[in-house]
Amino acid sequence: MTTDVDRPRPVRPSVPLSDRVFRGVVRAAGGTVLLIMGAIGIFLAYQAIPTLREFGWGFFTEASFVPDREELGIAAVGLFTLQVAGVAIVIAFPLALATALYISEYAPARLKRTLIAALDLMAAIPSVVYGLFGFVFLTPHIIYLSRWLSKYLGFLPFFEVNTDVNAASWEQSMYTSSPFIAGFVVAMMILPFAASIMREVFAQAPLGEREGALALGSTRWGVIRSVVLPFGKGGIIGGTMLALGRALGETIAVVMILAPVFDIRFRVLENGGVTISSLIALRFGEATPSQLSALLAAGLMLFLFTLVVNTVASMIVARSRSGSATEI
């Protein structure tokens, strides 16, 4: 006599049509983004071949960019690009961190919504507006800060200025249109991006660990120091690097402030300078085919550098959301 044995019924899950369509659309969108990025990189690399073939490594070591004398190099513009971005990060990082901590940990609910909206609004302001604000309003005031820095910290190479800082009648023109002023303006532009990323990561700090720290007698600052900051460490680094990528490629505001000078120097308070993006904007319209190749070669270097910076930053931000770095 045979008996029926209970057997598990096979389950054949079927994905709904709407899910399959959504998955296909998302994959197509992601693939399209990768194709566009790859096409841009291939185009820049192809257009840069004549310049790299003619000048070789000298293109990266030559300071001047004088097409009429066939002197083409990006050493000076690369250095000024790093100077402007470095000044911007030094100014924006502490402000972005303090803003993000205040919004996520201290601000009342009503004020928090207002501050978040203000950050979003700052990110939406066109760069030309920042450039006008920096040129018309900030420059006449920041030159006094620049003179103070050169007077009392001039022993540092990057705060030195080739003028008599103790003179009764000081040369104000030596401090205008400097990488320091350009970096100050760029700092205002990248601050909302860095602060928004940091705030979002801080808001994801585990509520249970926050309450546990408070139950053990920790103060609000103690919770921030032992829970929020360790959890958001990756977000702080990632947000800063994403802001750095934005600072490296900023164009219009820098063009409006910097006076073009092709010289290898480390004095950020002194008049003059030019970044890679501003060089392309200034010379693109009147460039000959050979000069256009040189500009696109400079653009390729900027593209690769910002791509690496943004990729690493995105990886750090994504990794920080696991909360594995949280300690009490």
UniProtKB/TrEMBL annotation:
Major location category of this protein: membrane
Parts of the chain that traverse the membrane: 28-49, 74-103, 115-143, 180-198, 243-262, 292-318
Gene3D superfamilies for this protein: MetI-like
Localization, UniProt: Cell membrane
Topology of this chain in the membrane: Multi-pass membrane protein
Pfam families in alphabetical order: BPD_transp_1
Domain called ABC transmembrane type-1: residue spans: 78-313
InterPro entries: MetI-like (IPR000515), MetI-like_sf (IPR035906), Phosphate_PstC (IPR011864), Phosphate_Transport_Permease (IPR051124)
Keyword flag Protein biosynthesis: no
Keyword Transmembrane helix among UniProt keywords: yes
Keywords, sorted A to Z: Cell membrane, Membrane, Phosphate transport, Transmembrane, Transmembrane helix, Transport
PROSITE patterns in alphabetical order: ABC_TM1
PANTHER family referenced in this protein's UniProt entry, alphabetically: PHOSPHATE TRANSPORT SYSTEM PERMEASE PROTEIN PST, PHOSPHATE TRANSPORT SYSTEM PERMEASE PROTEIN PSTC
Entry function: Part of the binding-protein-dependent transport system for phosphate; probably responsible for the translocation of the substrate across the membrane.
Similarity remark: Belongs to the binding-protein-dependent transport system permease family. CysTW subfamily.
Protein name as annotated: Phosphate transport system permease protein
